[in-house]
Amino acid sequence: MATIASPSATTARRHRSEGGTLRRTRIRLSSPWATLAAIVLAVLWTIPSFGLLVSSFRPPDAITTSGWWTAFANPQFTLANYVNTLKFTDTLTVWQSFVNSLTITIPATLFPITLALMAAYAFAWIDFRGKDLLFICVFAMQVVPLQMALVPLLRLYSNGLNLFGVQVFPGLNLNSLSSSFAEVWISHTIFALPLAVFILHNSVSAIPRDVIEAAKVDGAGHGHTFLRLVLPLAMPAIASFAIFQFLWVWNDLLVATIFAPGSNAPITKLLTDLSGTYGQQWYLLSAGTFLAIIVPLVVFFALQRFFVRGLLAGATKG
Amino acid sequence: MAASLVRKSLLPVVAVAATAFALTGCTSPSGASSGSGNVKGSTVTIYGADTGTEATELEASWATWAKQEGITIKYTGDKNFTANIATKIQGNALPDIAMFPQPGLLSSAVATGKVAQVDSATESSVKKNFSTDWIGYVTVNGKMYGTPLDASVKGFVWYSPSQFSQWGVQVPKTYADLLSLTQTIEQKTGKPPWCAGFNSGDASGWPGADQLAEMVLADAGASTYDGWVKGTVKFTDPKIDDAFTQLGKILKDPKYVNAGFGAVPSINSTAFGDVAIPLANGTCAMTNQATFLEASFSTTKTASGAVPKVGPNGDIWAFPLPGPSAGQSAVTGGGDFAAAFNSNAATQKVMEYLSSADWANSLITVKNASFISANKGVDSSKETDPLLKSAIETLQNSSTTFRFGADDAMPNVVETAFWTGMVDWVNGTSQADVEKQIQASWPSK
User: How far apart are CA B401 and CA A299, in angstroms?
Assistant: First the structure.
């Protein structure tokens, strides 16, 4: 198809019209030296992961006594670490914690995006008193480390909230349950909202005013505008934030160990347990890590095309 | 084009619907929680620090009893127990029972007022089964708040009996003998005889703290040791300084360490359990570690490729670290303690069981388990593992002076400083500086 050639043709045309600076930068960035530097950096950056991958295929006594680079001089490879990791159980099997991880991660990604998109729309396109102050407050929340919120949140969930003798919130009373995801979902949502609102607000507020006003003239209410206009137009930002949030929740250990009961622990918990109480089986960790990153990799590659676009959409408009 | 827009705009709608569905799902009322009285059908949650194999073994130890009683015991292991239990106590999100790996941690939990006193049945069972040392660890201001569970004995020197007989050397009786034995082996093999590993993630340095504590107890005696743990004897005290010097005669001598790993600083980069590997394949002649090192040998191989056999005539065996004169019996060790956060009938019943000789016997007989207990009702003849059997006998012997590992019994900040100090000491910070640095961490009163 002819369209394949067209993007480069378009960019070339645009560069010509935008004058020399951009072209010079472009030439400088694509010089052989710059390419070489980029390749060297990429290789250096990948070495630790590559070492981990090599390690995961080495027999236990080789892992514990020599570095992974010696594997090339004296090749000994085995799948035993992967097999042993898959067979590992303490209180949960690998499969159970995998399901737990998905059950935690998917809602904990969808909830904040849904809430934050609505908030972002309100901040961008609905005029109300104190909007700027409120937005600054939401933005400032990013500074608060989540560790500080653990104890107050736990208290809220277990004791409820009383204001001036009036019970405002009865608490969730989930302590006696051996299985519940509610607290983890709500906590992850709370922790994600400030950044989510900020990123999505930048993207939603970048929609041209003409478009929103045209919809208003045509008789669209806020609901209609939100669903038909804002949602599809903010898709790149939504997708890029979804990747962020998914990876963060998937890799989270702290929030899950504090808020989820033992039987709902995610795969990161299994990974830390894998090495045993005394760390005697730490050679299983590299194999475990590679099993655990399969899902994030799939998510990343599936949404990757949105990633750069979404990041830029969030970054250039302040 | 139009079709793709519709498809794109549908996705978030589905997401919103799923969110709403999930939210209603999670707030729906839960199953009935059990009342007090009849314990059949109730669930007791236990939160502890043991994970992996050890967690499976713990679950196996109470499985039969729980089935008979109709109680479901849900165990959750957490490697970050020490930090997370504090958060859970403050946030009031409590398990029914927690297994504390240190007496200091238990007493600070009791100070929050959330720990329930044990009932009379458990109290009499603990008094019947444990020595006064151990009862002291679960008693705060004259009230009993928990029960000791398992124990470990520290200060074993692991070695290979076959190598020893090949070199024609004997198990040493005094610390001076141990030093001359070290020299002999070094001369015979031309390689460092000792291996050591202090690496343990966040807790790196604890094996060094343990070894120093053993040295203090053997060298300076129990009363100095107790004062040291309480903070009245300082780290800069000549007696503690001397223990550092004694320990340094082995661990800081480049001729004597670190077999199979490298120079002296490699002690810090070696995971503490990994010393089992060179010991099993014969590269390392001796290492100092607690009874639980045995758990690490199951995954190692001897020079001929077999799994090493632990026993007095096997591939691997251990002798207690000798003191300044022969025949002393002062050991340091560790242990776990269970405490309950409520007085439900089922919780109390589980607590009573955990304090009983029945549970202790069930624990030590779990297949391949490396658990032992200081419970006096333990029948050591049931223990099939020779090393653990001798450790149990040491614990039960009334002439043994038993002290909890000093770092675990000190306040948490000091413990951490102690660990870091041992790492610095190996890295080459001067002994006097390390002592000052640890001493400075004591909270001012």
Answer: 59
Write out pLDDT tens, residues B137-187: 899 889 999 999 999 888 889 999 988 988 889 899 888 899 999 999 999
Q: What is the mean pLDDT of chain B?
A: 85
Does the domain at A85-316 match CATH 1.10.3720.10? Answer given as yes
The residues of chain A that CATH labels 1.10.3720.10 are: 85-316
Cβ neighbours of B61 in A, within 8 Å: none
Of A90, A150, A228, the CB nearest to B77: A90
- Tell me the pLDDT band of A313, cut-offs 50, 70 and 90: low
Mean pLDDT along residues B195-201: 89
Give the residue on B whose Cα is nearest the Cα of A114. B16
Q: What is the pLDDT of residue B102?
A: 86
> Among all residues of chain B, which has the CA nearest to that of A176?
B33
Q: What is the pLDDT of residue B383?
A: 84
* Residue A281 to residue A289: CA distance in whole angstroms: 14
Secondary structure (3-state) at B401: strand
Q: CA nearest A90 in B: which residue? A: B52
- From chain A, pick out residues whose CB is under 8 angstroms from the CB of B260: 65
How far apart, in Å, are the Cα atoms of B435 and each of B128, B208, B229, B420?
41, 14, 14, 11
3-state secondary structure of A42: helix
Give residue A310's pLDDT: 58
Chain B nearest-CA distance from A118, in A, is 11
CB contact (8 A) between residue A91 and residue B301: no
Q: Domains in chain B, ordered, with CATH?
A: 43-153+333-404 (3.40.190.10), 156-320+411-439 (3.40.190.10)
Q: Which of A55, A105, A226, A280 to mutate to test the interface with B (most CBs of B within 10 A)?
A: A280
Residue whose tokens read 């658990």: B371
